[in-house]
Amino acid sequence: MTKSDRARLHDQTLARGPGGTLHQTAPEGTQPLTTAQGGPVADDQNTLKAGARGPALIEDFHFREKLFHFDHERIPERVVHARGYGAHGYFETYDTLSEYTCADIFQRAGEITPVFVRFSTVAGSKGSVDLARDARGFAVKFYTQEGNWDLVGNNIPVFFIQDAIKFPDIIHAVKPEPDRGFPQAQSAHDNFWDFISLTPESMHMIMWVMSDRAIPRSFRFMEGFGVHTFRLLDAQGKSTFVKFLWKPKLGLQSVMWSEAVKINGADPDFHRRDLWNAIGSGDFPEWELCLQLFDQDFADGFEFDILDPTKLIPEEILKPVPVGRLVLDRMPDNFFAETEQVAFMTQNVPPGIDFSDDPLLQGRNFSYLDTQLKRLGSPNFTHIPINAPKCPFAHFQRDGHMAMRNPKGRANYQPNSWQEGPREDPARGHLSHATPADGPKQRLRPESFADHYSQARQFYQSQTATEQNHIADALIFELSKCETPVIRERMVAHLLNIDAPLAGKVADRLGIAAMPEPADSAVPLRDLPASPALSIERNGPDSFAGRKLGVLVCDGVDATLLQELSDALHEEGATLEIVAPKIGGVTASDGSRIPAMHMVEGGPSVLFDAVALVLTAEGAARLAQEAPARDFVRDAFAHCKFIAHSPGAAALLKAAGIDPAADEGIIALEPGTSAGFVAACRPLRLWSREGAGKP
Ligand code: HDE
């Protein structure tokens, strides 16, 4: 058979295979399919067989290579922070910080440094849901001119444990229980609360994790924290202690727990989708990097040990100074190559940034390198583009699995006599702060780490009444999932040291008949002043920008009103999504076709920050018969959302059992009132509806 005969046969087989299957013909100009070795592939639809119905032949190298590669596509997921989502962007330095640090990134006003950021949950596996109650990772890789700087933080400024040696225990305890393999991405189970109730140092972090901080509305509306105390070093080696904080430009926002549960069902990728949509539509999220800078005198005078990662320095005591902004403006081209393969490491610091002796940080500096070898499989993981520095670099590390950069020449060591290869430079390289370190080898927790309750109490007392109620509800829910009564009681004993009325409420709702004694505390508890900076509600936005309105419409919807609403939202920097009885959309009053983003069953109101019912009387009467439409309104009301309703929507409100005059969060929408409604949505929720009242 000649080559052209073969090609003809190939065309026929592709058009209609011998078995009658139809195959797509390749569009004009398509690149030919090849094997990984570059060999052109004639048939990618059928394995090589002995006869049409015969056994497959092992000779089929294309089939073997294709399946071999597929079988090895997965790499181990991260042992913690497995579920994450990343984006590219840049960091802009506001002004020189040369007074404090010689780090190149902080030398020049207006300096732009490329970054890659990965947000994550901690406990769940890669395929788990976004709205788990959990801390969120906030890891930033700055590609500076003097090497990569990884600020691997969380959205909570403190941690569960004081010493890295306890990390495997806390993580084992929160992960699915090993005998039964569940629950997934949840702390509401015995093992977690058993460990916590036996670990008093975790109490401060527990208050944060039970607060709404652990169920953020979006990555875009959460703070980030470096947690540990670090050091900045100036050109002369002078050290200043520093804590790193990220403040979101759009303010803080979380969802309610009863909402989180439903969001997980309606859209398990809620946070991913939010970031994807925001960046895709050009609404680039932004944070300010703020520093809490202090010296040894401040550290000596501060009431807690600045090396203790279960403590924070209240912003009212030490004001964070904004030093630059982070903007995320580009999604990865390939999730696996970038978000999955990115390797963050706390030990990646450029000259001018150094570590403190925080025992958690010291342990992390060991763990992050170790874990990359397991996950990425080769010491050459820095050859992967997302991990490679973007500044010039040169070293003698070589060979190993999958080495992609293979230097030429004779010298693979230094010093050498061949005038080849790089040399170290004491004038530019990273120097450690010459902290004196001497002492007997021992396994001891410092006395200065002993107060486990005072800052937990301060956090609770800094919350608004609504937020305090949410913390109590979260504790009650989580502990109600513990099957072992003694664990619940031990937790109540700890809560007695944090806030007695809170302990009482939790004990009552759990049905604990006799109040336990308060847990032992190694040191007397202190009453610290409230810190308003710790409240989400007090640090919300003053605009509806970046938020989303869900608009329920029907055929005959008032086109002018809809346009007005859309314009008002656009003006505010917010967006709108249309929810309709059918995904095919509706025909508006002016005959125009309005496409829908969701049908009612697929677009529950938990997906939106506020809702509007723009309906005709006939449409509302029809929707009133449908449970998902009634739930749409009922849920919005139960979640304290602002609800706008056109005159025609009355029947649906009535069917949902909602009195339009119930409160000021239910707003009549008529021509000319859209801007007023959008402005009314700025507080995001009408918390007084929940019965807690405002502070
Ligand atoms: Fe991590 N942590 N961690 N952690 N961590 C990891 O490194 C570890 C801690 C944080 O998006 C792992 O590459 C130890 C605190 C984030 O890729 C691992 C201790 C904080 C991420 C690891 C801590 C974090 C990780 C797993 C106690 C907030 C995800 C995969 C001493 C300041 C980064 C990996 C990403 C990931 C170890 C505690 C934040 C195993 C031993 C405190 C955001 O190395």
From TrEMBL:
UniProt biased composition (Basic and acidic residues): 1-13
A cellular component annotation (GO) from this entry: cytosol
Composition skew (Polar residues), residue ranges: 22-37
Catalase core domain segment(s): 34-422
Keywords on record: Heme, Hydrogen peroxide, Iron, Metal-binding, Oxidoreductase, Peroxidase
Cofactor (UniProt): heme
Enzymatic class: oxidoreductase
Binding site for heme: R78, R118, F167, R364, Y368, R375
Active site: H81, N154
EC numbers for this chain: 1.11.1.6
GO terms of biological process kind: hydrogen peroxide catabolic process; response to oxidative stress
GO molecular function, a single term: metal ion binding
Domain of life: Bacteria
Catalytic activity: 2 H2O2 = O2 + 2 H2O
Presence of the UniProt keyword Oxidoreductase in the record: yes
Region (Disordered): 1-48, 403-445
Protein's job: Decomposes hydrogen peroxide into water and oxygen; serves to protect cells from the toxic effects of hydrogen peroxide.
Family recorded in the similarity comment: Belongs to the catalase family. HPII subfamily.
Protein name as it appears in the record: Catalase
